[in-house]
Amino acid sequence: MKETQFLNQIVRSLLAGQLKAAADPHRPRWHLAAPVGLLNDPNGFIEHDGRYHLFYQWNPLGCEHRNKGWGHVTSTDLLHWQHEPVALLPTEPYESHGCYSGSAVSDEQGHLTLIYTGNVKYPDGSRTAYQCLARADGEGGFAKLGPVLELPEGYSGHVRDPKVWHDGRQWLMVLGARTLDDKGEVLLYRGETLADWQLVGPIAGSGRGGLGEFGYMWECPDLFPLGDRHLLISCPQGIAPVGEDYRNLYQCGWLAGDFDGTNFVHGAFHELDRGFEFYAPQTTQDSQERRLLFGWLGLPEENEMSQPTVAHGWLHQMSCPRELFWQGDWLCQRPVAELAALKGEQTRFEGAPDELPALAIDSAWLDVALCGEGRLGFGAVVELVWLPGRLVLRRKNWQSGEWEERSAPWLGGKITVLCDRSSLECFVDGGRQSLSTRYFPGENPVLSARCGGDGSKICLDHWPLATCLVQ
Ligand code: FRU
Q: How does strand 433-438 pair with strand 423-428?
């Protein structure tokens, strides 16, 4: 589609849909969601010239996975975001089927530069991909510089999601890939400039680094130092469930190891979030030296159209901004400290679960200490069951009405739950595990609790969280 035609349709889509989306009782109060249409992966997360920039995969014309461009918001505090001009729309032949995910860097001249995948599909069902550049045009938009990298030999058309960084000497890039014989891999490239890339080789993937068979495609890789180790976060597709692990359609996890600029020697794969919806996260290091992360609280191809927000013309939301840190050799996550600014008046409860007053969880922060066994209910459609050594997140599926569950090990430590209208994010044992989910409760949902046996007890701090919308 031509750019002006596209922009006209976006204007119409916003004029017709924005009020309806904003009036949806499931619309988040302080999480990022698209004004209308579909939002998926966070893209181009960076702090540049004193502002955080976050881009996102956006279909501004509907809730289907089509017409993917990049929306753009900026903030100085990770809470109050402002809309910026649309960054990318798929208007060129080399991106005919979407400006897919990618990252942002400050180039050699200090210009904010985007590197993204131009996705091209052919009528016979095949596809190709180009890694492309676009540079800030000085007026809030981005000027496309075109493709800088085509498919490597031996790989299918599924090569995408460039994450680029400068290591002080050279540019480096990781790409998600699917080989011609259906193995998921992460490819490493090196570049003197952002326009000139050499393949180093695969640094992780199915059949590599002791992983065994590990999926047919790895999406959205991100490789970065944290403390004295490196982390690779990526999203493998095609892994069957094993016991309590890998229960979602697609996985998202981390590998810790040593990266010497060429090879990445790593340990086991661990899920980054053990809830129902969490995918395609992206990190950046900010000027306070924090490694920050946004994830998508969604999963591709998982009955997305059955979510009730589709009737209000919008679909999906981001996670809260999180900070990554180590506890020994275990990767942990916590909500960024800035979020505390949204907290209102504190209510404290201590006692038997059955005596818990009905606390509002429309938009709330809960810090919970639990003894014995029991369950916390969130608006009658989600439960957090605490058992010795394990936390179980149960949800009444909004389509089938059946209860389904995910779980995480629990050392008995504090649990933080962030509630925002139609999402819950649980941080367990000070962030050693996280469990995130969308849910669609009735109006004004409240927290409830039940004992699971003698001696069960709850100590709970509750704060309402203020609304904080994108302006
Ligand atoms: C992950 C993903 C990426 C792709 C993008 C398209 O959710 O499939 O691999 O770039 O979404 O929107």
A: antiparallel
Taking the CA of residue 100 as reference, the ligand 1 atom at the shortest distance is: 10
Reading the block at residue 88, the tokens are 């990318």
User: Does the C-beta of 95 come closer than 6 Å to ligand 1?
Assistant: no
Q: Residue 417's beta-bridge partner residues?
A: 366, 426
- Give the other-Cβ count within 10 Å of 49's Cβ: 11
The pTM for the full model equals: 0.97
- 9 DSSP 8-state letter: H
β-sheet with 330-335: strand ranges across:
279-285, 291-296, 322-327, 330-335
Residue 160 CA to residue 178 CA, distance in Å, equals 9
Residue 469: predicted pLDDT: 86
- What is the Å distance from ligand 1's center to 268 Cα? 24
Q: Is 100 in the pocket of ligand 1 (CB under 6 A)?
A: yes
Tell me how far apart the alpha carbons of residues 143 and 7 are, in angstroms, rounded to a whole number: 16
Cβ neighbours around 95 below 10 Å, total:
25
> In this predicted model, what pLDDT tens digit does every residue of 86-128 receive, in sequence order?
999 999 999 999 999 999 999 999 999 999 999 999 999 999 9
pLDDT, position 302: 85
Cα separation, 318 vs 58, whole angstroms: 12
Q: How far is the CA of 205 from the centre of ligand 1 (A)?
A: 18
174: which 2 tokens?
A: 């990781």
Assigned token pair, 1: 């589609």
Phi, psi of 228 (to 5 degrees): -100, 15
How many H helices and E strands in the chain?
Answer: 1, 34
**DSSP notation for 64-88:** SS-S-EEEEEEESSSSSEEE----B
The neighbouring-strand residues paired with 407 are 392
Q: How far apart are CA 175 and CA 189, in angstroms?
A: 8
